[in-house]
Amino acid sequence: MGKTAIRTVCEVSFDKPAAEQPQLHNRWHPDIPFAGSIKDGETVKIECLDWTGGQILNNDSADDVKNVDLTKVHYLSGPFEVEGAAPGDLLLVEIMDVQPFQDQPWGFTGIFDKSNGGGFLDEIYPSAAKAIWDFEGIYCTSRHIPHVKFAGLIHPGILGCAPSPEVLDIWNTREAKLIAANKLVGRDVALPPQPINIHAGSADPELKAKIGKEGARTIPGRPEHGGNCDIKNLSRGSKVYLPVHVNGAKFSVGDLHFSQGDGEISFCGAIEMAGIITINFKVIKNGVADLALKSPIYIPGPVEPQFGPGRYIYFEGFSVDQHGKQHYMDVTVAYRQTSLRVIEYLRRFGYSDYQIYLLLSCAPIQGHVAGIVDIPNACTTMGLPIDIFDFDISPATAITAKKLDMGTCAFETGVTEGKVLTDGGKNSEISFGGGMTYKE
């Protein structure tokens, strides 16, 4: 250790489209060819593009967010062979470091237009918006959300091993049933295999076509392998135990975040970035059976921004929506209400609703499920750290607060203010936790 340089097993290019780089892919499938090989016990560096493959630019327009092509996203680095890994083993992934590229010291947070991706609060905030964040060491600031500075808990949004053919069939069957059962819902509830803009690494045309027809989209995390879990505490020093389903594991990683709030509520809600992740890999033989593991488990690392217990304001939300409708033990409705409470609170200092929505997605916000036992109301909380602001946001000050000039986040060309729909979700008859609406 320390006597030789850490090997870079994957390099990416900013000068070539992501879909032309054979060491990247944007589907889960067991037949995607290996992009490199890693020894059991080896530590390697892996370069990653941002999750959109470079579609979002460092400027003051949200045109790119509004028009982002969501069939091209989640370009993952890999898959990598981990020598000796076999089905039934566990892959112990220890994240040693995550950093942005030195010549790309910035990231972005986006709110997708409701007609193109949407987000957790899109029935109320349907417009596209964007904030650019500048990195200075461990800290970040944004010209689009002023008077805020905080340290990032840098982490990958996606990591996992490839599914076996059997596991892939479980995913596709399970999600197809959900799609079929919810034809009346006014939005997508899952994404079936989609050949359009499939990127399968170095696969030849025939194999690429097969993967396009069968491969699972990378948008959701799945219990059998983790994948896109967006867990902010999978940061430096954390250890993740991943089930192995195919020979060589076929590990992939991507969607790096400089920071993220619990829930990543705007969907493109972390501070998304391109960067380099350093990982140590170890194979634990027969680990799945020995631990009776049904889903990945992890141990957080020792690195995390520290705020004292008394340096947060916690907001409560319950499963009664903003229109007064009672939902039964719906944690997602409760967390939506918690988010809206924070937006209402910070609005008094001069921030717009969209600036706050962006901030709650990417800042070190603590979200918790407080109570799920007392029918009919689930309760969730959201902790807002006081010290990320350069002015006092305490309740004593908020009572008489004067609004500051907070500028604006970026909107699409010709738009100076995002839409706020006060009647959003009002006609919902059945809740699936997302305020989704059944249509007669």
UniProtKB/TrEMBL annotation:
A molecular function GO annotation: hydrolase activity, acting on carbon-nitrogen (but not peptide) bonds, in linear amides
Domain of life: Eukaryota
Any Pfam family matching the protein: FmdA_AmdA
Annotated TM spans: none
InterPro entries for the chain: FmdA_AmdA, FormamaseFmdA
NCBIfam families registered for this protein in UniProt: FormamaseFmdA
PANTHER family, alphabetized: FORMAMIDASE C869.04-RELATED
Protein name: Acetamidase/Formamidase
Organism, scientific name: Lasiosphaeris hirsuta
